[in-house]
Amino acid sequence: MTERYIRPTRADGVFNGFVGFLTRIGLPLAGSRVLAVRGRTSGQWRTTPVNPLRVNGVRYLVAPRGNTQWVRNLRVAGGGELRKGGKAERFTAVEIADTDKPPVLREYLRAWAWEVGMFFENVDKNSPDERLAEIAPGFPVFRIEPAG
Question: Contact at 8 Å (CB) between 48 and 34?
Answer without folding.
Answer: yes
